[in-house]
Amino acid sequence: MRMKKDLHFVKGEDVLRVFMLGGFQIKWGQTEIFQESIVANKEWELFLFLLTNRGKSVHVDTILETLWPNADYSDPQSALRMQMHRIRKFFDTQLPEWEQYFNIASHRGYYRLDVSASCWIDVEEFELGSQEARRTSLSDIDMAIKQYERVIGIYRGGYLQEKSLSLWVLNLRHYYRNLYLKTVYELIDLLHAAKQSDRIIAVCEEVFLLEPFEDILNIIYMRILVSEGKIQKAFNHYEHITSLMYHKLGIAPFIAMKDLYRFLVAYKEPVKLDKDKVQELLLNEEMDLGPMLCPSETFRQIYILERRRMERSGKSVQVISLTLAFPEDYAPESLEKGMVLLKDVITSGLRKGDVVSRWHDTQFVILLSDLDQGLAEDVVSRLSRDYAVRSTEEALRLIGSIHKRWPE
After folding, report:
1. For a pLDDT cut of 90, what percent of the chain falls above it?
2. Read out DSSP for 237-288?
3. Domain 292-403 superfamily per CATH
4. pLDDT at 276
5. What angle do CA 131, 202, 138 make, to 5 degrees?
6. Which of 170, 179, 345, 349 has the CA that lies 20 to 30 A from 107?
């Protein structure tokens, strides 16, 4: 098992650093010991799977069914032993004392990987750091801001992004992305409370390097620019991001961004703007942002509350799932393009009171209150039709389903 420690105080040349966000790396001191070119090899897929499930015993059958469901092994135990032998041989060559960091054991058909207290892993630092910042924010905003800024700097991109569409990676990749955005928005809330607009602008610009199409963040960024009197910079950003959306994703700007653009046009005339007046206008502006977009855990809580409320009144709540099916060799960039388009179709086609969440990398779920089965089917048909009209990806297939209950 792993010894408890305060991760961000682990220092020294004897610390092994493992990076799983934004590209897999293993570093010992200043030396990179992992060859990124072999990350696609089966032995390294096995190592990454065990590292992801560190501290847990995983059965051979589970490993094979998860990693290589279509492979036919006459002797699966021997196949895994050979791959583990190659992993150990690699570490013996590149890091002779590797066993002080990793312990790989097998017993009665189970494999298990444990890591020592001298092994620093970025995802653990990322999770613990965000929790620590959240606790600190209750008592010391200035310290919490520093902690949040350090934490968001740990996130360098998608979890094990080399394993682009491996199904066992997708849920975790979505989880860490959601945690990153949640952490970013919590930091922005604190900076807003501390009236530090310049730092909000800097945070947004840093996050755009990884998440340029995050619609809420783009809206926050442009609103802050306008509140600071930087109208031209807000226009320049709108033109830049919409150009990216057209050329990289082939889609139009988000509905809310178009609304904000109209707001910008109304106040861009060559008349000197009063900063306080612009801030007042922004605060009072009632833009129809369409349905509520939220993380999956928030969606789950809203669903539970809404279902109970509807049951007390004798009414029903419907949950719609919209899932993109894709071929095994489908490019992740094209899949993400399809999901961005699906998100825009959903946000432009639903009521303001509806609730939407991206449940995982290929699925959105929608909470519809006070609608019967027939009306819910109409919603599915309309959204499916709108997506089909706007989509240029023939390989993607949209599957819509209606659920009377959703996992709590």
Report:
1. 25
2. HHHHHHHHIIIII--PPPHHHHHHHHHHHHT-SSSPPPHHHHHHHHHH----
3. Reverse transcriptase/Diguanylate cyclase domain (3.30.70.270)
4. 52
5. 30
6. 170
pTM: 0.65
80/87 Cα distance (integer angstroms): 11
User: pLDDT by residue (tens digit) across 275-324?
Assistant: 454 454 444 444 444 677 777 777 777 787 777 767 766 677 789 999 98
Alpha-carbon span 178 to 185, nearest angstrom: 11
Phi-psi region at 167: left, alpha or beta (left = phi > 0; alpha = psi -120 to 50): alpha
Q: Do the beta carbons of residue 52 and residue 89 sit within 8 Å?
A: no
Nearest to 35 by CA among 94, 98, 111, 108: 94
Q: So what's the pLDDT on residue 264?
A: 66
Strand partners, 397: 325
What are the domain boundaries of the chain?
35-117, 292-403
And the tokens for 22? 């934004």
| Separation CA 187–CA 233 (nearest Å) | 23
From CA 252, how far away is CA 243, in angstroms rounded?
9
Host H or E run for residue 259? helix 255-266
pLDDT by residue (tens digit) across 230-263?
A: 888 988 898 888 888 777 766 666 655 666 666 6
Please tell me the distance from the alpha carbon of residue 401 to that of residue 325, in angstroms, as a whole number: 13
Q: Which residue has the tokens 């990676």?
A: 169
